């Protein structure tokens, strides 16, 4: 759904001041932020360091050699690398508000939306990038988005085919195409891409495991066993998960770093109330070696003393980032971290959110474990509802939220999320009261106000009150295109066609295809038939579903 997309997976670390003193000798925060988390450059930094550096740049407005938009985009990349797509999406959104045609931010927002399971939103952004410039990177991104959505795999292959034709040597695109071909059952085609990957990267565990799957499909048991043997034991579950083929993350005790980390934890003094703040500083700021930093984080998690949830979020996420800097992938880091602190509800929740886009059944089992470990973790219950929606279990998601709201009546995000489910089925009589209750808890929350404004516009009721909601939301979040789009609908309902046209025009310049469709509807009503039809045609070319909301509420023009 279009309106409440920011309500995806809610994380306890949502506003955490990451690594406020992140520094690397000889580099300024702006240089660290600008260099980002690229894996192929000479200045790769782990996600928490980049996030901390970008925090300093943004907070101090120290944009020397960079810009505010780039700082937000780089911080978004850091959040995404840390497995926090919701936080990433907020930074990408801010970057796009500042620079509407910022391709890198748009690509980042697409990947964040895909990770959150918001596949339609991800596809809209990918379509926009392809429309701007049909290069191999934008086509590869759209292929990836379609693959993760599990729909339109034929179109996904067409995108990957075109990208490979443009740059045949790009291995990432060939990996994507191989996965698409496997999903489509074209094992002969998958074998051709696999052979090229194997020639280029003969020691790749990804290619070895792909070869095992291909051999299995061909009934070649000996080759299957040989290929699995080439995949390091400690990587097999991680690689399997890339294929979405098997269970929860396995144990990684055989990883060569595990014993070293385990010993460092054993040598680190147990945390007490008197030492907790000092240990938290050693964990987050990384003033010690990597081993000792992980030990500090782990002992703090094991201590279980009273900590703000923000600090707990920092602690776990920094632990994962440091493990990642030791050469582990994100899932490996989560799995190894959970071996060090196996009862961490927050760690289980992060794992579930990370794997939900491509293994939702496994994610549901993991989030259940998180809730069992800590029944008070509201964010885990919200994430469970998200995962249930990925599995098309709407009744289960509503039941989860209903029970969570009874247990935690003062948490507005639960009411907001349930309202979004009611919106999908047109149950505005249920959605609007939930939003009203959420606003009573947080009167200046722009997303809650926008949600009520939008649903009032959809329902065609209390329009002046809806207009007031949108105006207040824009005070809290100036320039947010989705709120301007909601206000445009209200003005259209009220008959303020010039006002609606101005709002749809502005929203369409930075938003999605539905805003452009709305602009076309308004132009038709104002008698500008040629321009109106052109806008509607352009919107449908970008997104065939751009007019669905207008059709559902009776505002689509006659064919």
Describe the SSE topology.
Blueprint: H1 29-35, H2 47-60, H3 68-81, H4 85-98, H5 103-115, H6 119-132, H7 136-149, H8 153-166, H9 171-184, H10 187-200, H11 205-217, H12 221-229, H13 233-242, H14 256-267, H15 276-285, H16 290-303, H17 309-325, H18 330-340, H19 345-355, H20 360-373, H21 378-390, H22 394-407, H23 412-424, H24 428-441, H25 446-459, H26 463-476, H27 481-494, H28 497-510, H29 513-525, H30 529-542, H31 548-552
What would the keywords be for this entry?
mainly alpha, Serine Threonine Protein Phosphatase 5, Tetratricopeptide repeat, about 0% strand, globular
Distance from first to last alpha carbon: 24 Å
* DSSP strand count: 0
Largest sheet: none
Nearest-angstrom radius of gyration?
Answer: 24 Å
Shape: globular
> What percent of residues adopt helix (DSSP H or I)?
over 70%
Q: Which whole number gives the mean pLDDT? A: 78
CATH class of the domain at 1-132: Mainly Alpha
**CATH level-two architecture of the domain at 1-132:** Alpha Horseshoe
Unreliable spans are: 1-25, 38-45, 244-256
Helical run tally: 31
Given the helix and strand composition, which structural class is it?
mainly alpha
The fraction of residues in strands falls at under 5%
In the CATH hierarchy, the third-tier topology of the domain at 1-132 is known as Serine Threonine Protein Phosphatase 5, Tetratricopeptide repeat
């Amino acid at each position: 759904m279009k309106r409440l997309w920011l309500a995806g997976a809610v994380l306890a670390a949502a506003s955490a001041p990451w690594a406020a003193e992140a520094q690397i000798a000889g580099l300024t925060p702006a240089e660290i932020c600008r260099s980002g988390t690229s894996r192929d450059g000479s200045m790769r930094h782990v996600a928490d360091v980049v996030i901390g550096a970008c925090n300093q740049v943004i907070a101090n407005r120290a944009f020397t050699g960079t810009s505010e938009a780039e700082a937000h985009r780089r911080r978004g990349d850091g959040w995404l690398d840390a497995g926090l797509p919701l936080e990433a999406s907020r930074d990408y959104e801010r970057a796009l508000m500042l620079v509407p045609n910022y391709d890198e931010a748009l690509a980042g927002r697409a990947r964040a939306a895909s990770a959150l399971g918001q596949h339609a939103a991800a596809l809209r952004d990918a379509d926009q990038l392809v429309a701007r410039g049909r290069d191999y990177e934008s086509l590869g991104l759209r292929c990836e988005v379609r693959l993760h959505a599990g729909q339109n795999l034929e179109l996904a292959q067409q995108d990957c085919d075109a990208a490979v034709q443009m740059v045949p040597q790009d291995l990432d695109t060939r990996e994507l195409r191989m996965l698409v071909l496997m999903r489509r059952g074209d094992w002969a085609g998958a074998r051709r891409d696999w052979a090229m990957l194997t020639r280029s990267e003969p020691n790749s565990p990804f290619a070895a495991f792909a070869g095992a799957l291909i051999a299995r499909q061909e009934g070649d048991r000996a080759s299957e066993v040989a290929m699995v043997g080439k995949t390091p034991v400690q990587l097999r579950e991680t690689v399997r998960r890339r294929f979405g083929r098997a269970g929860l993350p396995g144990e990684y005790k055989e990883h060569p770093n595990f014993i070293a980390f385990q010993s460092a934890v054993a040598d680190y003094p147990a945390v007490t109330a008197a030492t907790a703040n000092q240990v938290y500083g050693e964990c987050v700021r990384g003033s010690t070696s990597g081993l000792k930093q992980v030990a500090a984080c782990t002992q703090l998690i094991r201590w279980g003393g009273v900590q703000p949830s923000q600090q707990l979020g920092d602690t776990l996420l920094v632990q994962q980032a440091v493990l990642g800097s030791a050469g582990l992938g994100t899932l490996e880091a989560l799995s190894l971290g959970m071996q060090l602190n196996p009862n961490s509800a927050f760690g289980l929740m992060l794992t579930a959110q990370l794997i939900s886009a491509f293994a939702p059944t496994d994610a549901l089992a993991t989030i259940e474990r998180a809730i069992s470990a800590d029944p008070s973790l509201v964010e885990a219950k919200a994430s469970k509802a998200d995962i249930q929606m990925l599995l098309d279990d709407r009744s289960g998601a509503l039941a989860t939220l209903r029970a969570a709201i009874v247990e935690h009546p003062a948490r507005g995000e639960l009411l907001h999320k349930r309202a979004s489910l009611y919106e999908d089925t047109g149950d505005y009589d249920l959605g609007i009261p939930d939003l009203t209750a959420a606003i009573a808890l947080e009167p200046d929350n722009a997303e809650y106000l926008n949600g009520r404004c939008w649903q009032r516009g959809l329902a065609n009721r209390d329009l002046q009150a809806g207009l007031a909601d949108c105006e207040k939301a824009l005070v809290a979040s100036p320039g947010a295109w989705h709120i301007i789009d909601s206000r445009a609908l209200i003005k259209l309902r009220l008959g303020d066609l010039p006002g609606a046209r101005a709002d749809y025009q502005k929203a369409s310049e930075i938003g999605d295809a539905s805003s452009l469709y709305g602009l076309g509807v308004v132009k038709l009503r104002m008698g500008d038939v040629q321009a109106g039809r052109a806008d509607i045609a352009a919107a449908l070319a970008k997104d065939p579903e751009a007019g669905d909301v207008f059709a559902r509420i009776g505002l689509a023009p006659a064919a």
